[in-house]
Amino acid sequence: MDSNHSARVRVTRLIAVITYQFVYENGHWRFQPPADNMRDYRTKTVQQMASEHRAAGACAS
């Protein structure tokens, strides 16, 4: 817990360690993505992001 309204959840799987940020709002814990991860959602369409990921080989067609 970072405060009464903020917490970090650390997840491990094999050798990967990922930390997720959550905030407590209106009686519920909500995932809060990092600001840099949200940049694409503010500037691109989902179709544009999917095309970029496919071109980079990051997902199946």
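That was protein one. Protein two is written in the same sequence-then-structure order:
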Amino acid sequence: MSQDFRCDCPFTSAVDILGDKWMLVIVKQMLIEGKETFKDFTESEEAIATNILSDRLKLLEELGIILKTKRPDNKKSNLYLLTDKGLALIPVLVELATWSDRYLRDIHPGIVDGEKMELLRNDKAAFAHALEKNYRKKLATIE
């Protein structure tokens, strides 16, 4: 895969890959919502168009952020799983959620609240650790 980067800045290079409207949403859906099949993604409330979803899943796979494999119980169905590289995005997602919680509630009061958000507010590291632990536990049951 050949990726065009605007410059050699590490921040800009990351944004060149992850700054797309859908890339981190797909990672979040996998990590937090348990999405793992194409059908799972198409049924999400974010309503990503199927052609865009196909393209982004392919790109995430090419980048090594996700792995496409077959379901152990149904070899016809593709399964998308986060790799270690994908799980390394957890701190980015945690910081984005923290920022959103703190600065967007006044203009978007419907942002999710509750027990998980309280943990995020009170202990970001514990929240991030729990996300990774739960996802790795899920991976262990699939592999």
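The chain is about 60% helix and 10% strand. Keep this in mind for the problem set.
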